[in-house]
Structures are given as structure tokens and as C-alpha cells.
Design brief:
135 residues; mainly alpha; two-stranded antiparallel sheet; cytokine activity; cytokine receptor binding; Interleukin
Length: 135
């Protein structure tokens, strides 16, 4: 519950102040706390994402969380749902700012390597950091 309140606070604060960055500490707390995956689970982990593909990559991560991660991992605290909602907010904000998704072959999720949840999580945090620096 604390993480949900903290996440809501940061979302509200970023909207009110028109901040461009996403609170990575919230996403890190959500993904580290209660999600446990089988050791043989594999997920498309974002890698080598170009600036033109960031919004599409965020959408891929959101779909991966809402699909494969949700199916193959134990999420006793519904942290995945919180992460999906946060990513949806970031995607909507980027789309409103003119950074729409693209259908380019360069941006497809399936070109990413399949990796463990730990690598998926690390690469997702790197993608969010890229989002913060590039806008």
C-alpha cells in the first residue's frame, strides 16, 4: 500500500509541476519487492533502443509485464499492475508530447533478446532512464 501511495504522490507531483521525468525509484521499488519468477522464465528485454523507438519500447515493456510476466511470475502484492499503470501514464504523456509509437521493424519487441527477469528489469530501468534524459 505504501508503494501505491508513494507512486500516486510522484505521479501527481510530476503532473502538477509539468516535470518530464519518471520517478525511477518508484518503478525500482515496485519491481524488486514482491515479484518472483521461475528461473527458466524468459522475457523480451529492451536493448539498443533508439530515440525514435522509446515510446514503442515502453509499450512493449508494458505488454510484456501485462502478459508473460503476469503469467509466469508470482506477484503477491499486485506490483505488476502498478508498474503497468505507471508505464501507461508515461506512454500517454509521451504520446501527448508528440512522441508516438511507431510500426517500424527497427522498433519491434521481438528483435530484443530473451532474458531472465533480472535482466528484463535492469534493461527496463535503463530504458526509463533514457526516457528521462531524452524527454
Amino acid at each position: 500500500m505504501f508503494f501505491f501511495i508513494q507512486m500516486a504522490y510522484w505521479i501527481l507531483l510530476s503532473d502538477c509541476l509539468l516535470a518530464r521525468s519518471f520517478p525511477l525509484s518508484d518503478f525500482r521499488a515496485i519491481t524488486q519487492s514482491h515479484v518472483e519468477c521461475r528461473s527458466d522464465s524468459r522475457f523480451y528485454a529492451p536493448s539498443d533502443v533508439t530515440e525514435a523507438c522509446i515510446t514503442t519500447a515502453l509499450d512493449c515493456v508494458m505488454r510484456e509485464l501485462n502478459g508473460t510476466v503476469k503469467e509466469e511470475c508470482d506477484d503477491s502484492e499486485q506490483d505488476i499492475l502498478d508498474a503497468v499503470e505507471s508505464l501507461n501514464h508515461v506512454i500517454n504523456r509521451r504520446t501527448t508530447a508528440g512522441h508516438a509509437r511507431t510500426d517500424s521493424n527497427e522498433c519491434t519487441c521481438e528483435r530484443w533478446p530473451l532474458a531472465s527477469y533480472a535482466v528484463f528489469k535492469k534493461n527496463t530501468l535503463n530504458l526509463l532512464q533514457m526516457t528521462n534524459t531524452m524527454g
